[in-house]
Write a structure and sequence with these properties.
The chain is of the alpha/beta class and 393 residues long. 50% of the residues lie in helices and 10% in strands. It is built from 16 helices and eight strands. Helix 7 packs across helix 10 and helix 15 crosses helix 16. It is globular and about 60 Å long. It starts with a strand and ends in a 15-residue tail after the last helix.
């Protein structure tokens, strides 16, 4: 890789540039805002110093790696890059504007990649004269530690572009999964479906975010509670993604009124000191126990795990990604202890089918068993116990 550009010097852009530099790949971090470039430089320095303090990087190697990064507001520094990774805010018009500029500036065979978490790669590609050289390269927050990278094919993306971005991800010691384009791609689509479900549960049962997060973590369903995660990511970002996915897929992605109300009040989570939790004291978001009844706990566990499984099954049925890619993505990108399709196989697909049938009658049509589940049950492919389900055993 001759040189990579990262366009947009926010936290994600800075972390991506850092990851490239750590892999000894020359990188230009490009932004029109000199103050943003200064903040990015300070952020990268802080990350490097943290690694030195932990003994994971020597001071000499740190300086060699840091020297790989050029902080620039000039077009001329992009004239010889092989790949440009766009990391500007999640606004389609802004991203298209960036892609038009990159298309004009970069060499003809250079690859244009977007770090978007939910927006259409093909729409961005259509703003260029090289749609076949455009793809998604979605890093996860924080990009300097999270291992997953979703490589997203647009309608016209060439296979060699996907192969190149896959190899680049591997050079960064990341785990790439190649997926087709759809709103939310794989991880954010499945996570947002389960997030909408727990928000709906919170409103219907009048329970606290603390209680729900405690049940999720106590039962090892996820590494952190969904409300702690939303606060960490930023409720404005969670709200934007939820709106995008609700528009695309319908009301199963409706998160209820509370998320929008918090955003309207500018309570955006950790970055503003208030979200679902208050962060005015260090222990404010800590909660080890839940006041839910055992029946409520079981209902919450069922709704969270089944909503996660069902969205994963829909992604699989639509041909967006293979069962293996979906489960790898959910483990590496969302920290789930087991992929949702493998979990269903281990539970027994007949058991899952019966549970969903009961839940659809009791809760609503959104829990109607998916076609791929019904087909496997009818064929007697019940998962681990019959050696075949979504996977072969």
């Amino acid at each position: 890789m001759k040189k990579v550009a990262v366009v947009g010097a926010g936290t994600m852009g800075a972390d991506i540039a850092y990851s490239l530099a750590m892999a000894n790949i020359p990188v230009v971090l490009r932004d029109v805002d000199e103050n943003a470039l200064q903040r990015a430089q300070e952020h990268i320095r802080n990350v490097i110093e943290s690694r030195i303090a932990k003994g994971r990087l020597s001071p000499k190697d740190a300086e060699i790696r840091f020297a790989q990064i050029r902080f620039s507001s000039q077009d001329k520094d992009l004239y010889d890059v092989s790949v440009a990774i766009e990391a500007v805010p999640e606004k389609m018009a802004l991203k298209q504007q960036v892609f038009r500029e990159l298309d004009r500036i970069l060499p003809p065979l250079a690859i244009l990649a977007s770090n978007t978490s939910a927006l259409s790669i093909s729409e961005m590609a259509n703003a260029t004269t090289r749609p076949e050289r455009v793809a998604g390269m979605h890093f996860f927050y924080p990009a300097h530690t999270m291992k997953l990278v979703e490589i997203i094919a647009g309608e016209n993306t060439d296979q060699d572009v996907l192969d190149t971005l896959t190899r680049l991800s591997e050079e960064l010691r990341k785990i790439p999964v190649v997926v087709k384009e759809c709103p939310g791609f794989v991880v954010n689509r499945i996570l947002t479906a389960s997030m909408a479900e727990v928000m709906r549960f919170k409103a219907e049962h009048h329970v606290s975010a603390h209680d729900i997060d405690a049940v999720i973590t106590k039962n090892h369903l996820a590494p952190m509670g969904p409300f702690v995660l939303a606060d960490a990511l930023g409720l404005d970002i969670a709200w934007d993604v939820a709106q995008t996915l609700q528009k695309a897929y319908g009301d199963r992605f409706y998160p209820g009124p509370e998320l929008g109300e918090l955003v309207q009040q500018h309570h955006l989570g950790v970055k503003t000191g208030q979200g679902f939790y208050s962060y005015t004291t260090p222990e404010a978001a800590a909660s080890a126990t839940s006041s839910l009844t055992p029946e409520q706990e079981q209902d919450l566990i069922d709704q969270f795990t089944m909503a996660t499984f069902m969205e994963a099954a829909r992604v699989f049925e639509e041909g967006i990604a293979s069962a293996r890619a979906i489960d790898i993505a959910m483990r590496a990108g969302a920290g789930l202890p087991m992929g949702p399709l493998a979990l269903a196989d281990s539970m027994g697909l007949d058991v899952v089918y019966n549970k969903l049938t009961q839940m659809s009658k009791r809760i609503g049509e959104r829990f109607t068993p998916p076609a791929s589940l019904k087909e496997r049950v009818e064929r007697g492919q019940l998962g681990v116990k019959t050696s075949r389900g979504y996977f072969n055993y």
